[in-house]
Known about the structure:
alpha/beta, disordered C terminus, 43% helix, single chain, 11 helices
Amino acid sequence: MLMQILPPLKALQAFEATARLHSFSAAAQELFVSQSAISHQVRLLEQQLGCVLINRKQQPLALTEQGATLFSVLQESFFRMRSVCQHLVQQPGRRLAIAAQTSIAVEFLAPRLNAFRSAFPHIETLLHMESNAASLDAGQFDLILGTWPCPSGFATVALRPEWWFPVCSPAQYQQLDLQDPASVFQAVLYSSEQGQDWQLWRQQMQLSAPAMLQQRQVSLALLATKAVSSGEGIALSNSWIAGDAVRAGTLKALLQWRYQLPWGQYQLHYRPGGQQQQQINQFIQWFCAQMQHSDLLAADGSTAGQD
């Protein structure tokens, strides 16, 4: 029977940090030791295991096949240890870490966090805004809101089917023919999808391509919605982004000309079975109630935004 020998924890920790950060110096900074100390620990680990874990000739550092296998286990193990330790040293009611896509974070969640704190004063929250799933470290969060796929170790709550519709300022709204969706082509159209969003809208409205089209490009639907609120132009938006502004009267929504994008349905992902499960469940119930209340189409699916 082979003797089961576990390498020193310090060496495993040095390798995990180096593999995760792709840098000896970054790992040293995180662990508050010198770069040579990190390199030495990783060398000792490789000697004990009898294999090379890191290809040092590549920049940034790359893992060998054996290194990738070990890292996949260590990353989850260290995350679990950090989570448990954090829970033990903090007061009951550890804060919920929430990552939300830019549009939901800015226009929906941030304005409602005070209401959540009033309803659940024992739950602290940390809201993080992220625009790109590739740069999101899911392991740092309890809940994730956005159009991104479900991360490993998370479960998903399906949210409402999302409808998109034209929005504009009250002044621009007065210039539209509410019986003719093609009247939007007389205005500047803001697009966050290189024009594909408006092309799909036109196809679903069964409209021919106009001879002339004025379009301006932005990187986010949130920016397009903000751009038209000043008085000129029309954007495609949804209840998450434009709902509060429509209810406040600063934007008008043409809900009768709504459509669904073939991509980008919002989802709520959560980490199940942890110490925070009760708080997570309370947040999910609160969030779903807020979502239902904020849905412009649920309030009036045919006449909202019309005089």
